[in-house]
Amino acid sequence: MLKFVPLAIGLRYLRAKRRNGFISFISLASILGIALGVAALITTLAVMTGFQREIRDRMLEMAAHATVTADGAAMENWQHAVAIARQDPRVAGAAPYIETEALLQGARRQPAIVRGVVPKDEAEVSVFAQKMVQGRLDQLTPGSYNIVLGIELATWLGVGVGDKVVVTTSFQSTPMGGIPQLKRFTVSGIFEAGYQEYDKGMAVVAMEDIQRVTRMGDGVTGVRLRMHDMDQAFDVARDLALRLEGPYRVSDWTRDNANMFRALRMEKTVMAILLSLIIAMGAFNLVSSQVMLVTDKQADIAILRTLGLSPGGVMQVFVVQGSVIGLIGTAIGVASGIVLTLNLETLLQLIERVTGVVLLPEDVYYITGLPTELRVADIVAIASVSLAMAFAATIYPAWRAARTPPAEALRYE
């Protein structure tokens, strides 16, 4: 039973009225500081995770989960590769594609990526057809020389549906030197992916048309794959490449966009570290309140020591008392952070109605809402850090209490 004495005394100190009201005020400030830091950190990480998910989903709506391309040459046996890929139960769809850099000229010039697709097969690996705001993807028929532009690319070129765009793909070597390969395409549609890399930097044409312009024959750049589980993208693409004859390169969505995802992860980590300082401030207040409490309880500590409580037991008393304060602050912060995150969109709309200011205008941001995603792992990590800081904040005051000489403490009582 003696081992529960420090726990009981620590909890009693927590409930008891303070002779010095300033100590209670600092303890309350410690709880509020920890709660505020935890709530802010949970909400901020949820918003950043939501934005990362939104960017990833929009990107993967237009991009394949994985690609298999020929090493340094056109892929000639792409029909065989597509057939093998579709036999794999892990593959949701497969489609050939051609991708080349080009210079597009309308009222102005702009470099862009020109992608050649088969509209029927493209539906298996992307939702391109659903992103059309003008025209239809199936208008990209062989021999039509139609082209579909991203909405920002069309705006920059100063063209619309029905206008002509000159596409310069490459230079052909002749005895007279390099001659650019030019072809006039008709704008048959405009798409809006909600992702700037595609809206401003991509044009789509029929695969057979770009084959003729680039003189690739029947070859393609490679095969694009969509998986049922995108986390298996690289393994599935590698298995497909091993089943084909010849050297092939394999890439997946994580490698194609490694720099962007690394930057987003770094931004989230830095933000978490900075917001953890709010929790640290609450813990620092806890140190102050515990030091003052130890000073206020000098006589009680001396009496406990004379009754036989060991220095370690005295230390446990104040560790328990301070840790419970940290636990209360963390619990309030976790609950507040979850509630705030779940109602953040409503709160944003309320602020916009009250102030009359649109915080996320549609003409500026691709994402007009405020996406959030609560992750249990993030909440557990934040709560653990908060509790660890609170526990660490009790060590010095508790150690100082354990070193209190009973005779010195009782001399002036």
Number of helices: 15
The count of β-strands is: 10
Element string (H = helix, E = strand): HHEHEEHEEHEEHEHEHEHHHHHHH
> What is the quaternary state of this protein?
single chain
Topology:
Elements: H1 5-15, H2 21-62, E1 66-70, H3 78-87, E2 91-105, E3 109-117, H4 119-122, E4 132-134, E5 146-150, H5 151-157, E6 164-174, E7 177-191, H6 196-199, E8 202-206, H7 207-214, E9 222-227, H8 233-243, E10 248-252, H9 253-256, H10 258-296, H11 298-306, H12 311-342, H13 344-355, H14 376-402, H15 406-410
Parallel strand pairs: 3-8, 5-7
Antiparallel strand pairs: 1-9, 1-10, 2-3, 2-6, 2-9, 4-7, 5-8, 6-7
Helix pairs in contact: 1-12, 2-10, 2-12, 2-14, 10-12, 10-14, 12-14
